[in-house]
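ok here's the first one, seq then struct tokens
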Amino acid sequence: MILTVTPNAAVDTTYTVPGFALDRVNRPTEQSVVAGGKGINVARVYRELGGNATATGFIAGHNGQFILSGLRAERIPHDFVETGGESRICIAILDPETQTQTELNEWGPAVTRQDADRLKEKVASHLEGCRLLVLSGSMPPGCPESLYAELIEEARERSVPAILDSSGEALRLGLRTRPFMVKPNCHELGGILGNPIRSVEAAAEAARWVIGKGVEIVAVSMGKEGVLVSDTENIWYARPPEVPFVSAVGSGDAMAAGFAFGLLQGWPMERTIRLATCCGAANVAVPGAGACKRPQIEALLEKVEIHYFC
């Protein structure tokens, strides 16, 4: 079983609006509303691959109850900490004519140090029997940016490896605690380094820097350009197959689920990278975060290009 942590869970609303434009009335031709947030998306895809995942994090207010209801409907095991305020709504507007994606993401509910301590206790109670801890996404207002670092330390005390997928100060502090794996995108990692990552070579250099901090595996996702993966000895670059673009929301989370699944299966790294890359690509071809299905993922496996970078 893996445990995913989503401090800033959301009601994910996706609208498909052909010809979307500003300063006028736009009417969607399709819409979906689901329980969302990065860790929830990871749990959704991980279970689609055949694994067992439990989701936790913070939820608040009526939106929080909608999130819980959605998780129950999807039969995703969950155990969230309820706080004051209101869980956020995240809106993605997809325009199939221009292949653009516009997002409006609320900040989320205010969270206190006491709330963070309650979540730490919740996570600790689930680490027994847990094989992997996945920490995903941004912090809601007021939440200590050190929370991921604290949870990584909690997991280490119980010999549970952690995957960290975040940005900003939460990522910076998390790196200091040497998680087993980090999976930032090129913009997130570039922000930490203070230098933009615009090429595979730059991603490789950044990955080496992360490995030098004591992390065992780093995956730098680069959108449609693919993913650069490094462990302590080797570096690989994988290019995804071309798929019809529908939505990129949750593709990084789908990729994280693929890495988690392959690593826990004990697969060779190249096979794990292939699966993770296909999870991200398959998610691009469907509306909704983490909505890709296993047959779609498996159909892409032989189409991934993997190069041994060095």
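and now the second one, same deal
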Amino acid sequence: MGIFDKIKGAIWGEAKAAEAAPAPSQSTAATTNPEPAAPSATTAATSPATSAPSAPVDIASILDAAVKKSGQKLDWKHSIVDLMKALGMDASLSERKELAQELGYTGDAGDSAKMNMFLHKALLQKLADNGGKVPADLLD
């Protein structure tokens, strides 16, 4: 399993965990009509198997929650290292070099700043290409 697959697995795993738990958006919707709250929770428990593949995974909310859970001050929106740390992954140079190979980086791997900028942008684009909902300003 490659580094990208580990990242994707961590994010999609968090998305499935969020679906299994009462999601804030569902409980927010339920507050406008409190009576369907119980059926909504039942529907949420049964629908992930049918709706998960077609529903895009909200990358920003998952990574924001991962940062909060980590207890660290991480800027995943601008740093590949922070993004990987938020997911509890090894963000070492060797791991990032491996990810660079997977994502087709052709530049100098010794220029870690340039490589990191490429990795961040390429990773978010690949997540979007694989069904992730990534904020448009991060894909520019």
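notes on #2: The chain is about 65% helix and 5% strand. Helices lie at 3-20, 24-32, 37-46, 48-51, 59-70, 80-86, 93-102, 112-129.
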